[in-house]
Specification:
- This protein has 401 residues and is α/β, with parallel strands linked by helices.
- It has 2 domains: 147 residues, Aspartate Aminotransferase, domain 1, CATH 3.90.1150.10; 223 residues, 3-Layer(aba) Sandwich (Aspartate Aminotransferase, domain 2), CATH 3.40.640.10.
- Helix content is 41%, strand content 12%.
- It has 14 helices and 12 strands.
- Strands 2-8-7-6-5-3-4 form a 7-stranded mixed β-sheet, sandwiched between helices. The chain has a 3-stranded antiparallel β-sheet with strand order 9-12-11. It has a two-stranded parallel ribbon with strand order 1-10.
- Helix 4 runs parallel beside helix 11.
- The longest helix has 22 residues.
Length: 401
């Protein structure tokens, strides 16, 4: 019997970041010496006090089904975190805990979108935003940004993209893949546009909040314009800030009707997130924050190294990111050149695939994020790995004819 995929499944593809990371894994499994700079995953261990909290939770027997919306202790910790760090007033019942930040986004879109609705997404942007929108039968409206605006969405571009069909703006700050961080004034300009369009809800993805460099300030939408609170979902998680990618805990805060709708959906999808991981997340949010500061300093050193190395390579143009742990260099001048394999590089995807094949360095092509010819390099790897990867990349580029 042939399995017939649903119409919804046909509208989406496999995540490009996951696909490239899996290619690197498969090559490593065959014994190839691959350096993967494709995944957005800190290479540090989860801090000890968080791991100990998980062990203690297991010892206490916290291994049964948790409440669908999250254990009360974690929802209270999330509300306290929002108040303490962001100046946001969310009650515990206005929060939700999900199996990773991606589920927060999926829940919100699945609970609110209908065919024909539109979702405004600045690009380059994370690969799943548009795919999840299409899965819901809605239309992603991609708003390109580029070097001329520092890869930032402007108020004029946002206003031009909004129509009567616009249901959501999905906004990521600090941004994956560019690492740009929006200032308070820039967000205020965007808020001014949104105030003129009351039908538009805002999903602000703050997952990289703590990963900022050079003393750059972080501020989120509702902190800039509190009147947007009743139509904003503020999403975050513990994966990037606390090296907890595998624990799969994301969370959100928003108006009670939206949170209740997301919880209703989650009752039929996954139910509650892993109980032990939730207790670990409580320790992350309420415990010592030394790791956050130490990892930020380490990532800044890595950022400086990789940007210096990339800028020294002929044919690459690289902006200095202020946040996250990615750089997004342009490889435009290399398009049209021939790789050592004999293949002509016609796209940024060709560049990434040839780089993996010839130099054994995995990166993600820019077209996956909506803007090219670029590619994303994750510097969530050791200094030694980054140094060796840049050496290989430099040799590969020098060998192009």
């Amino acid at each position: 019997m042939a399995i017939q995929p649903s119409a919804a499944l046909k509208r989406i593809g496999t995540s490009a970041t996951i696909a490239m990371t899996q290619k690197a894994r498969d090559m490593k499994a065959r014994g190839e010496d691959v350096i993967a700079l494709s995944a957005g995953q800190p290479d540090f261990d989860t801090p000890l006090h968080i791991r100990e909290a998980a062990f203690e939770a297991m010892q206490r027997g916290e291994t049964r089904y948790p409440p669908v919306a999250g254990i009360p202790e974690l929802r209270e910790a999330i509300a306290a975190k929002f108040a303490r760090e962001n100046g946001l007033d969310y009650r515990p019942e206005e929060t939700i805990v999900c199996t990773g930040g991606k589920q927060v986004i999926a829940n919100a879109l699945l609970a609110t979108l209908n065919p024909g609705d539109e979702v405004v997404i600045p690009v380059p942007g994370w690969v799943s935003y548009a795919q999840l929108t299409e899965f819901c039968g809605a239309k992603p409206v991609l708003v390109p940004t580029g070097p001329d605006t520092g890869y930032k969405l402007t108020a004029e571009a946002l206003d031009a993209a909004i129509t009567p069909k616009t249901r959501w703006l999905i906004f990521n700050n600090p941004c994956n893949p560019t690492g740009v961080v929006y200032s308070r004034a820039e967000l205020a300009d965007l808020c001014g546009v949104l105030l003129r369009h009351p039908q538009v809800m805002i999903l602000t993805d703050d997952m990289y909040e703590h990963l900022r460099y050079d003393q750059v300030e972080f501020v989120t939408f509702v902190a800039v314009e509190p009147s947007l609170r009743d139509r904003t979902l503020t999403m975050n998680g513990v994966s990037k800030s606390y090296a907890m990618t595998g624990w799969r805990i994301g969370y959100g805060g928003g108006p009670r009707p939206l949170i209740d709708a997301m919880v209703k959906l989650q009752t039929q999808m996954t139910s509650g997130a892993c109980s032990v991981a939730q207790w670990a997340a409580v320790a992350a949010l309420e415990g010592p924050q030394d790791y956050v500061r130490a990892s930020r300093a380490a990532f800044q050193k890595r950022r400086d190294l990789v940007v210096d190395r990339l800028r020294a390579m002929e044919g690459l143009e690289c902006q200095m990111p202020q946040g996250a742990f990615y750089v997004y260099p342009s490889c435009g001048p290399l398009i049209g050149r021939k790789a050592p394999s004999g293949k002509v590089i016609e796209t940024d995807e060709d560049f990434a695939l040839e780089l993996l094949s010839a130099a054994k360095v995995a990166v993600v092509h820019g077209a996956a994020f909506g803007v090219g010819p670029n590619f994303r390099v994750s510097y969530a790897a050791s200094l030694d790995e980054i140094t060796e990867a840049c050496e290989r990349m430099g040799r590969f580029i020098a060998a192009l004819s």
